[in-house]
Amino acid sequence: MVQKNPSFETLFIARQPVFRSDETVWGYELLFRSNEENVAVVDNEAQATSSVIADGLALASEGINPDLKILINFPEQLLIEDAGFALPKDRCIIEILENVRAMDEVLDAARRLKDAGYTLAMDDYCGQAELKPFLELADIVKVDILALNANPGCIRSTLASIPEGAMLLAEKVEDVATFNFLKKKKFSLFQGFFFSKPEIIPGKKLSSSIITKLQILSELSKPDLEPARLGEILRSDPSLTYRLFRYINSAGIGLQEKVSSVKRAIDMMGMLQAKQWLRSALIADFNTTPRSGELAYLAVQRAKFLESVCDSSNLDDCVPDSLFMTGLFSLLDAMLGLKMNEILKLLPLEESVEQALMGEGRLHDLLRLVSSYERGQWEETFQRLQKVGLESSQAELVYVQSRNWALKMLGSAHASSADAR
């Protein structure tokens, strides 16, 4: 159960990945939101200080590769106050919001940042004349594909109004077909939830190793799984055994002596945590595309978040492990390029979890909660939190804890078998 903490200043912080054309991650945009007024924290003049932004950055960027870029939205007042200078210029990109007015004092503030070596991005551009003064300063121009209805003619005319030399980022790219179309244009970067949508390949066959992993995941979902059988599964794969030892002997676990047997590891972790670790490791192994790493992180965080929501909410009849599985398997179709109903033929699960993965039932409603959080759809997030009786301060704490848990789990899960040798 997550305890309420009245001193915990709630900053809903979601992060959205930005991809290159080869689907590797270039960076992240951080989305900040206050819990009560449903407005961006950086838009609230009472709270809009460089310290708030810096604190939020530290919280949200934990575990992100330091070589990746971070985009942060800046409203008008913060630009004028030079709050951007509180951020590291080699990593953070100042994103000028589309509702910022091109007044002299704002443009002067943007020039000060640019002259100091900061990278500037123009947000949500779709040809607005009032934003053109910013285009002369912007290193990156984010084109709002959704506002242009992904219309080729509208996209062409918008691109024609952007000065040569600016890096083009297509944002709000919501499906794979649009992503593939935009790759043929001048865009270098892509943002949106196309990466979590399945790209179904007709006639695709899964490899025997993937099928074996799905079978193991199915076995791990059984409530009567014995510790001895779990030990057999782990010992059957030297890479898994090594990664388990690496995880349990890590500094974060805090054991006084090293664990060197599978049985001892399971005894120390307990069956529930051992199963969760193994599930996370198997999900991390579904590396069928470059974006799979981001999908694995998202799936593992979803799993832990939903499990914790079950423990912390007013839902009397929810089962934490069922919600864990719902979150963990929710992106398998995107990872494997198969329809979810085809995957479930290889991965039989309890009925409530299968219904959720097919978009039905009460567990699917909870899956929508975490999905709205990821997308920064704060109004929907608040409404869904109210339904489960969870305060926003609790939800933020759970979200941060689940993110840290996912990073710790996948840190060990991504350890390669080559390291073991």
Compose a concise summary of this entry.
With 421 residues, the chain is an alpha/beta fold.
Ordered list of secondary-structure elements with their pairings:
Layout: E1 11-20, E2 25-34, H1 50-60, E3 69-74, H2 76-80, E4 92-96, H3 104-115, E5 119-125, H4 132-135, E6 140-144, H5 152-160, E7 167-171, H6 176-183, E8 189-191, H7 208-220, H8 227-235, H9 238-248, H10 262-269, H11 271-284, H12 292-312, H13 320-329, H14 332-336, H15 340-346, H16 351-357, H17 361-374, H18 378-387, H19 392-413, H20 417-420
Parallel strand pairs: 2-3, 3-4, 4-5, 5-6, 6-7, 7-8
Antiparallel strand pairs: 1-2, 1-8
Helix pairs in contact: 7-11, 9-19, 10-11, 11-19, 12-13, 12-19, 13-16, 16-17, 17-18
Keywords:
globular; 8-stranded mixed beta barrel; Hypothetical protein af1432; 20 helices; TIM Barrel; alpha/beta
Helicity, as a percent range: 40-55%
Strand order of the largest sheet: 1-2-3-4-5-6-7-8
What is the distance, rounded to the nearest whole angstrom, between the alpha carbons of the first and last residues?
A: 40 Å
CATH topology name of the largest domain, in short, is Hypothetical protein af1432
The tally of structural domains comes to 2
Based on DSSP secondary structure assignment, what is the total number of beta strands?
A: 8
Mean pLDDT: 82
User: What overall geometry do the principal axes of the alpha carbons give?
Assistant: globular
What class, by secondary structure content?
Answer: alpha/beta
How would a textbook summarize the main sheet?
Answer: 8 strands, mixed, barrel
Architecture per CATH nomenclature, i.e. the level-2 architecture of the largest domain: Orthogonal Bundle
CATH C-level name of the largest domain: Mainly Alpha
- Specify Rg, calculated over alpha carbons: 23 Å
Helical element count?
20
Low-pLDDT stretches are 1-10, 34-52, 412-421
Topology pattern, helix = H, strand = E: EEHEHEHEHEHEHEHHHHHHHHHHHHHH
Beta-strand portion reads 5-15%
For CATH, the homologous superfamily of the largest domain is named as Hypothetical protein af1432
